[in-house]
Amino acid sequence: MEEHAAAAMLDGIAGAGEEARDLTIRGLATYQPYDGILAFKMALAGFMRQIMHESVSFDPSQMVVTSGATPAMEILSFCIADPGNAFLVPSPYYPGWDRDIKWRTGVELIPVPCRSTDNFNISITALEIAYKQAKKRGVRVRGVLISNPSNPTGGIVPRETLHDLLEFAAEKNIHFISDEIFAGSTYGSDKFVSVAEVVNELEDFDKGRVHIIYGLSKDLSLAGFRVGVIYSYNESIVTAAAKIARFSSVSTPTQRLLVSMLSDQRFISEYLKVNRERLQKMYHLFVSALKQVGVECFKSSGGFYCWADMSKYIRSYSEKGERKLWDRLLEEAKVNVTPGSSCHCIEPGWFRCCFTALSEEDIPVLVERLRRVTDSHKSNS
């Protein structure tokens, strides 16, 4: 990644290539469209198609580029819902959404519990119950929000479930938002399917209710570049989001640099291949390490996280018991994980563990530190 970026910049400075003039001071320092320059949107559309295994195409005119996926999610929420409205969100879900969506938009997030006995799969019945309960409270539900692959569980939403979710959204006349920021970071046996692919399979379906959030912080590990995108089939949403993007635009030099990188299909293909291999290797090493201390993990297929069941190490089967274990993991073992209750998981004892933050050399250290907690629990039982 570093070598490719350096080569692209040097080419521009030396005046090489067709896009050399775009890397001059005139091409970099003048005002550009706030919602993203066309060349970047075209490169991003091609990259997203490559991420999705060429199964679906993306139209650059339906994109709004933002300074990260967090602003993308907030801007889309502003466009879809009013303060006091709500999104139904299958839980456990990414804890950052409570901040990213709720703080400034005033939109409520209603957790819809998914259970381990159902492999944390989304239930249309549960969504129906949550929708009716919200209606009784006088809360207007404006959409269903999911992450696919799931953060925190790492599960991938099956094609059939996506069909059901879209039909549910159509029946209720609400929006459907799919956060697919880990689409290219898959490593398991389950195949990732984008809602963009599924929506094309439905006849007489109003695509205007479907929106995708994406970004480069995960699949390309370019968090510092601050690049996110709203992809919407709704022209009015795209127009409104493009105006709000004035407050969340990506710098022109960043976009110009990425045009070269994202357009290099050979480089991207090799990068994704190597990245997936590394993810798979570290995931299996991490899961094996947890097994050594008696901790089982949910079968993940995508993302950076292991969803670990530590319920047998909590002294009281409750959120309070989970929080106490979390505190011991942090203070005694010096292991930082996310408690499931922060993800609105209704089953105490699940924890989100980021395995991509470790190297292979860290695995024995992890095992030794975890044993400080697990062994002491056994001795006190």
Q: In what order do the strands lie side by side in the largest sheet?
A: 1-7-6-5-4-2-3
Largest sheet report: 7 strands, mixed
**Strand residues, percent:** 5-15%
The number of distinct structural domains comes to: 2
Domain Aminotransferase class I/classII large: 19-370
Protein name: Aminotransferase class I/classII large domain-containing protein
Pfam family, one: Aminotran_1_2
GO molecular function: pyridoxal phosphate binding; transaminase activity
Description:
- Keywords: Pyridoxal phosphate.
- The structure is a single chain.
- By secondary structure, this protein is an alpha/beta fold.
- It folds into two domains: 31-263, Type I PLP-dependent aspartate aminotransferase-like (Major domain) (Aspartate Aminotransferase, domain 2, 3-Layer(aba) Sandwich); 275-380, Aspartate Aminotransferase, domain 1 (Alpha-Beta Complex), CATH 3.90.1150.
- It is 43% helix and 14% strand.
- The protein has 14 helices and eleven strands.
- A seven-stranded mixed β-sheet has the order 1-7-6-5-4-2-3, sandwiched between helices.
- It is globular, with a radius of gyration of 22 Å.
- The chain starts with a helix and ends with a helix.
Q: Briefly, what is this?
A:
The protein has 381 residues and is an alpha/beta fold. The chain has 14 helices and 11 strands. Helix content is 43%, strand content 14%.
Name a few traits of the molecule.
11 strands, 43% helix, alpha/beta, 381 residues, Aspartate Aminotransferase, domain 1, seven-stranded mixed β-sheet, Aspartate Aminotransferase, domain 2, globular, 14% strand
